[in-house]
């Protein structure tokens, strides 16, 4: 009963996706161009690239293990690092009017630099490609977290702070139980933005590396492997979608962020 | 306990308080009434150390208030901005108890008991957004009562609860005051209420506020919602306070 209902809702929502794919298939077959492969071809190539391993490894191929996972590892490491730094610095700055007054222009300058451009100087500084890639990701994705955390910590409602003062909450209690939860919607909006940014920067930074999805994309292009190129792009889309969905689920289960009903807390932030 | 001495305050060029004098003795319950917008909340915020007054001072046990005094609890007028929406009712009530050195269990029990007292025993796990305005206000009252402060400041705490609950809360306040010897300053716009709960009623003028009259309420204890309100003395006091609040448009001209 329940499963049927869910299936119907799923079908009601995704019929458009199915339709688009079918049209694409028909269009590509009609065009018959090698650089515009049909989705069936692309999916077959994707399977070959990433899911042709033995069942004992969940079908993950050697390429998946040696190209995909290290890249994703770098992405998560970079994102987590940037998140930690961004939240700590952002909240500290948001709570200090003086500090943010001086630092803010610097932040907006830093944010304005297109992160891919930093690959060149970072290669010179770090030499190792892993460090360069990490640095590019961290530098590129820290801004949304930092600026949102700052904005969130700065705009904590006076009423909350007055209450904290009147009941004599100590500094750490005020920070952990009042300021952070009050800023949480903004912080999460920043984290989410930066997660999708991290995926993009991961790929871009891998164009100079020797492994990863970006590198695979480059190889496929050099070999005129057009299903491979399209497959890589499709994979990135799927990854981005999955990451975002995962994020939403995780956010919903973070304690202390409930405030406006059973759904997601209101978000909306600055980049 | 509390002494407010010639307190004055202005927001920009808008004068709100103009030399307010006021005392609250140990264990005393003083009601403050005054027309809307006359500066009652500003007075309360100055006492709580949240507003730095332009002139005059606030003394608690003889010590001038610079920051928020210890051992003080406040029920704010705007309860929706004073309850933390990310915490359940019980967590909101229990939070200030951490600094009292109570164990987790003691805090939880105290929070439950306080919620029980304000008639919200069943709503401990509810979040503010799941509660009506009157319920939220009662959570804020429970939080202040559970804290057992030496001085309790309340800014129109019963404004959005129904008449019956209001009477229960008034009696609760009197009972808590008697058992824990709290000093209470209660701001209200309800003249009946100011007389019913008060040991004294302080009437303020329209802004910029000054004290028009400081009336002693010599009604017998324990007070009773029906019997007390029928007393001749009650009726007389209520009429007098009513006249003072409405009457005498501020004698600005005569100054
Ligand atoms: N932060 C503020 N900045 C500027 N003006 C303010 C501020 N707070 C209050 N006022 C003004 O000061 C005056 C007194 O405000 P206050 O809130 O103290 O009055 P009140 O007696 O509590 O009113 P009410 O009975 O409606 O609660 C009002 O005219 C109000 O507009
Ligand atoms: Mg007010």
TrEMBL record, chain A:
PROSITE patterns: ABC_TM1 (PS50928). The keyword Membrane applies. Pfam families: BPD_transp_1. SUPFAM superfamilies: MetI-like (SSF161098). It is a multi-pass membrane protein. Residues 68-251 form the ABC transmembrane type-1 domain. It is found in: Cell membrane. Keywords: Cell membrane, Membrane, Transmembrane, Transmembrane helix, Transport. The keyword Transmembrane applies. The chain crosses the membrane at residues 76-94, 106-126, 132-150, 187-208, 228-250. One of its GO terms (biological process) is transmembrane transport. GO terms for cellular component: plasma membrane. Belongs to the binding-protein-dependent transport system permease family. This is Nitrate ABC transporter permease. It comes from Sinosporangium siamense. The lineage of its organism: Bacteria, Bacillati, Actinomycetota, Actinomycetes, Streptosporangiales.
TrEMBL record, chain B:
Transmembrane segments: none annotated. Keywords: ATP-binding, Nucleotide-binding, Transport. The keyword Transmembrane does not apply. InterPro entries: AAA+_ATPase (IPR003593), ABC_transporter-like_ATP-bd (IPR003439), ABC_transporter-like_CS (IPR017871), ABC_transporter_ATP-bind (IPR050166), P-loop_NTPase (IPR027417). Residues 2-231 form the ABC transporter domain. The keyword Disulfide bond does not apply. SMART domains: AAA. GO terms for molecular function: ATP binding; ATP hydrolysis activity. This is ABC transporter.
């Amino acid at each position: 009963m329940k499963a049927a209902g869910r299936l119907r809702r799923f079908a009601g929502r995704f019929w458009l996706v199915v339709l688009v794919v079918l049209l694409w298939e028909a269009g590509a077959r009609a065009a018959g161009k090698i650089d515009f492969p049909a989705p069936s071809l692309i999916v077959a190539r994707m399977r070959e690239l990433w899911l042709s391993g033995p069942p004992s490894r969940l079908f993950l191929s050697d390429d998946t293990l040696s190209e995909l996972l290290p890249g994703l590892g770098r992405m998560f490491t970079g994102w987590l690092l940037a998140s930690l730094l961004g939240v700590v610095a952002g909240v500290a700055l948001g709570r200090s009017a003086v500090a943010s007054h001086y630092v803010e222009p610097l932040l907006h300058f830093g944010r304005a630099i297109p992160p891919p451009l930093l690959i060149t100087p970072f290669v010179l500084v770090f030499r190792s490609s892993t460090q360069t890639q990490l640095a590019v990701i961290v530098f590129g994705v820290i801004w949304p977290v930092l600026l949102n955390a700052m904005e969130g910590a700065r705009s904590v409602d006076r009423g909350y702070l007055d209450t904290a003062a009147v009941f004599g909450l100590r500094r750490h209690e005020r920070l952990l139980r009042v300021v952070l939860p009050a800023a949480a919607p903004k912080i999460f909006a920043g984290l989410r933005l930066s997660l999708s940014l991290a995926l993009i920067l991961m790929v871009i930074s891998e164009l100079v590396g020797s492994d990863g999805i970006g590198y695979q994309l480059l190889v496929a292009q050099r070999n005129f492997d057009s299903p491979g190129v399209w497959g890589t792009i499709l994979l990135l889309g799927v990854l981005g979608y999955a990451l975002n969905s995962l994020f939403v689920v995780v956010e919903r289960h973070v304690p202390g962020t409930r405030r406006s009903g059973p759904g997601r807390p209101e978000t909306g932030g600055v980049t | 306990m509390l002494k407010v001495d010639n307190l004055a305050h202005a927001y920009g060029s808008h004068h709100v308080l103009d030399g307010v004098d006021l005392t609250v003795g140990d264990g005393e319950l003083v009601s403050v009434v005054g027309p809307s917008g006359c500066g009652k909340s500003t007075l309360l915020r100055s006492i709580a150390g949240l507003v730095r007054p332009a002139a005059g001072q606030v003394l608690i046990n003889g010590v001038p208030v610079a920051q928020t005094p210890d051992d003080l609890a406040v029920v704010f007028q705007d309860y929706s901005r004073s309850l933390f929406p990310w915490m359940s009712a019980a967590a909101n009530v229990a939070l200030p108890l951490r600094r009292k050195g109570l164990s987790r269990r003691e805090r939880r029990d105290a929070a439950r008991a306080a919620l029980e007292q304000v008639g919200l025993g069943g709503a401990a796990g509810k979040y503010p957004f799941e509660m009506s305005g009157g319920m939220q206000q009662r959570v804020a009252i429970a939080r202040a009562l559970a804290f057992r402060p030496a001085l309790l400041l309340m800014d129109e705490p019963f404004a959005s609860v129904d008449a019956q609950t209001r009477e229960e809360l008034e009696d609760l306040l009197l009972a808590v005051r008697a058992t824990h010897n709290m000093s209470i300053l209660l701001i209200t716009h309800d003249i009946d209420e100011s007389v019913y709960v008060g040991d004294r009623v302080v009437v303020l003028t329209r802004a910029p506020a000054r004290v028009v009259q400081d009336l002693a309420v010599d009604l017998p204890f324990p007070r009773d919602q029906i019997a007390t309100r029928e007393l001749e003395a009650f009726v007389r006091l209520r009429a007098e306070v009513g006249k003072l609040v409405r009457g005498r448009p501020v004698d600005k001209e005569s100054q």
